[in-house]
Amino acid sequence: MKSNALYLFFKKPLKAGFSAFIILLIISQFIAYQKYLINENEEKKAINNQVNLIKEKLQSLVMYSYTATKTLAYIVERNGIPTDFDKIAIELLERNKYFDVVELVDGNGFITHVYPLKNNNVIGFNIITSATASSGALATIKRKDFFIAGPVNLRQGGVGMISRQPIFINGKFSGFSAVVTKLSTFFSDLNINTSIDNHFIYQLSRVNHKTGKEEFFLKNNVASFKNFAVPIEMAFGEWKLYVVPAKQPINTAIWFSLFGFLLTLIGSWSVWYFVGQSDRFEKRVNIKLHQQESQLKKIHETTSQRIKKSESSLNKAQQIAKLGSWEFDIEKSKLSWSKEMFRIFEKDPKYFKVTQHAFYKTIHPEDKEMVLKTFKDSLKNNKPYKIIYRLKFDDKKIKYVHEQCETFYDENKYPKKSFGTVQDITDRKKIEEVLKNSELLYRSLTSNAPVAIFNVNKQGDCTYVNEEWMKYSGMSFDEAMGKGWQNALHPNDKERVLQEWQETILNNREFKSELRFQDANGKTTWLVAKATKLLDANNNLYGYIGMASDITERINNEKELLNYKNNLEELVNLRTEELNEGKEALLNLLEDLNFQSQELEKEKVKAQSADLMKSAFLATMSHELRTPMNSIIGFTGILLKEYAGPLNQEQKKQLSMVKTSGEHLLGLINDVLDISKIEAGKLKVSIYPFNYLKTLQKTLDFLLPQALKKGLKLKTEISKINITLNSDERRVEQVLLNLLSNAIKFSSKGNITVKVDVFENTLVTQVIDQGIGISEKDLNKLFIPFIQLDSGLSRSHEGTGLGLAICKNLVEKLGGTIQATSKKEVGSNFTFKLPLE
């Protein structure tokens, strides 16, 4: 019955049409409302997409700016101001499309280098004294880390952002590396023209942390659009981004509503005529909804692609900087790595599971406890940390890494997440090791020098003195540093010497003076001192290096000669009085005076000759330490030959000791200079063919007296009558001389045999002795510079520990190899091989 009644109800056209009108009206308005919501969501998504895109680009700009300024600062800190600054700047600008200008600022705040110069003539501008730029610059120095300043009204026009990285050399602030990005360049990369864009109004602002006032980059007035402000998480202050629709269009849902109402009228009218035609309308609605769903899906796919592209750019930047990042969720105990972390730790992301245990397992065992303690202390004290530690790999390879970490806490001050970066600094460590070895070589050379050597900076503060300087002054190394060196000056010379030193600095010239040192016991030493300028790669003065030689003996001789002259004048006066007593006495006196005058003239010539020789010696003294040593040995030889007068046995003995010590020290200096040239790659060889056997025989003849003196026999076993070697004869002779001298030095009986063979175009030479031998554990120390074996040899035999190291480097420089075998108390065999061609 009910079905029949319902059927009868809808069968009536008016009631069916009215019912259809009510139903269709509800449906159409509901659809219009859904359309309204979809339009609103699309507009919000469009704004959010634009905001996210700009945020991603801005964060990329920060990352690239950090990498660029950090790289430039690293170059300056390690090598000083680069001479090829423009080339480096061009590479940075080509690699990073966001940058417009690259700058360098010195320690006083003046801009010294700019690229490109066109339209950027700001060289000489001081950013520290500038009212607009000083706050950002001072903040950067205080932070000792990267900082972005903005908005900045650029002197070359426009508004932009300046990224700065402070440069610290030896802990002292030395300037900035900086890149400038115009806001127009930034928006241009996004294909956005803020002046003619009809869709959105853009604005970027930064909140001044001192005044709390919002500083805008663009001229657009967004005072009435505060609800559109989107905060951007930056480590350099609070930033805000505005993306405001340019105009509020009429929501198309109104048309849907009107259309729905019209459709309702038509539908209800159609129902009134054609009951059952509503299915057609429902199908059209479903098609429309499907289209809207497709549009939403397309928008989602586009956004996902942009996110992947940004992640790819970040991974590329980390790879270039060898800088990986990690995140540790403390609550879940979950560790995640960036792609660069896997490359640094040499792990395959497909098979390596990132966990705390796996991470600590890769750390060098000697550093693991330190890393764990540092992380725990950071969590406990709520402080970020920076550490350097080593990674150890299965192939025994070692890497040095620099890690930074910061932990974030909840409102109850419980740690939630830790974020960190790890940078591979192995190459930097290798460079530091080379510099350290160079410094040790310089210290060793100057410590053994027979003259006082000192270094001062351009302010006149002492930075280094050697052992000879401390011996003359009676002061310790620490007492001489800074202005302390002035206390070594004799009180009567101090004011004059300081005045001469001040004039040297003001007039930019070399320092040269004769002065006295007086130690705490009152001992006075006369010195002749000379200091020359030290210049960097850009011819900028950064200090002085000087030498001082003891001339006390010369000064005493001059005083003695003056006393002798005064005594002679008294004698002349006495004889003159005696002349008045008689003619005969006068004649005798004239003869005596004539004879004494001749002797005096001879002594005067000798004194002048000695003085000229000393003056010439001092005049030719330079940084080359071999020159003074050769002079000492030469003059000692002259005295031993008694050209200057007879010597007693004790004098001959002592002068022979002086000559022997001088020759030993000269050999040390030659060895040190040779090894330093070899290590610096500056040793040159002259290749030409020569008779090898003739060179060998010449060396044996030279050493034969030493061997006979110790009762040793020199024997040769040569497989060929004539051997022509195409190599450097002087260096080959030096190798033979070193090996044979060592064999004689460490042998007290038996034979020393030299075997020469030729195998497959290779010359093989063996030096075999029957000396004290070398233990197996000490064999690997033989060819290391400055190393002498600890088995008593360093106490009973003279030597520098450089001879075998030089031999090894010379043989390898000539394309050959050298090795040694030995047995304790039996003897040693040193074999070196050289190519015949």
TrEMBL record:
Q: Which Gene3D superfamilies match?
A: 1.10.287.130, 2.10.70.100, Histidine kinase-like ATPase, C-terminal domain, PAS domain
**Source organism, top-level taxon:** Bacteria
Q: What class of enzyme is it?
A: transferase
Identify the residues that the record assigns to the PAS domain, covering every copy. 438-508
What Pfam families does the record tag this protein with? Answer: HATPase_c, HisKA, PAS_3
According to the UniProt entry, the coiled-coil residues are 554-610
Instruction: Specify the signal sequence span.
Output: none
Span of domain CHASE:
111-190
Q: Which reaction does it catalyse?
A: ATP + protein L-histidine = ADP + protein N-phospho-L-histidine
UniProt xrefs under NCBIfam families: sensory_box (TIGR00229)
Protein name from the UniProt record: histidine kinase
| Organism, as annotated | Mariniflexile jejuense
